[in-house]
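Notebook entry, structure prediction.
Reason for the run: the old model in the group folder had no record of what sequence produced it. Starting over properly, with the input documented here first.
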Amino acid sequence: MKYADTDIIINRSLLNRLEEKKKRLDRLRPLKKDSLQKLLEDIRIRHTYHSDAIEGNTLTLQETKLVLEEGITIGGKPLKDHIEAKNDAEAFDLMIKLSNEKKAITQETIQQIHEVVTKGLLESSGRYRTENVRIGGSKTSPPSYLKILKLMEEFISEVNSLKLHPIKMATFIHFKLVAIHPFLDGNGRVARLVTNLYIISKGYSPIILKKEDRRRYYSVLQKADKGDLSPFAEFISRAVNESLMTYLSSFVKDDFLVPLKELAKLSSYSQEYLSLRARQGKIDAVKEGNVWYSSKHALNQYLKIIR
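New structure, fully documented this time:
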């Protein structure tokens, strides 16, 4: 299958909004070290929770925070879930370290991340699988283990040669790694970390793919399996847009994220109306749990459009 920038379509309005946020964030660089460190610590916990939860880990967000920050063992929860959380947080740290060192995506860096993600959980940690596997619930089977080395060589070559917009390349990287399924286990978690390694290298902020979006996540991956990467690219774009909102919220007063209930007081629109527009993607917003958050800046941008 060939991939060209024009083959992967992202809503132009969404792409423009996230690029505008990236430019505003770039103008703030270098970011304040203390604020950046605090922000990354929060993202580290939330990324670990959501990435693990997508794969079936039963720890809650608060329990994940306790395991990582206090070293507490949660009663009634499997030991495997605790190890996964600690591993994935350590792998997130490794991903940040690799990005700070401007390390390229190679077979070695991918295997290095996998080794941390699966240590103590998988005998073949850090090594490509040597047997064939099936993915439960999937209509497609990963390629034979005999093809993995060649497919990974081709994948790295494509990463270095394809001329794609960074968001589209991030989409390709994630999809291709999951499709090749080079490891016995941990492929999804590794793909999410490697995708972030690439995104950060292009000046974007790290993304979190959320447990609540799991069904949609698998749905767009299935469409990518059939050759259409556009729905997955849009999915990734929305995650990038949310991440940039979170970053700006930490450094710009008017971008501070507040519940739509509070934001509604600053306009003539009700919370219900703003929530509808947030769900439709018409106003930039971030959903945490059951609560939508947005900012004065996002509200003002929306009001400019509809006037």
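Summary: The beta strands are 258-259, 286-288, 291-294.
The old model has been moved to the deprecated folder.
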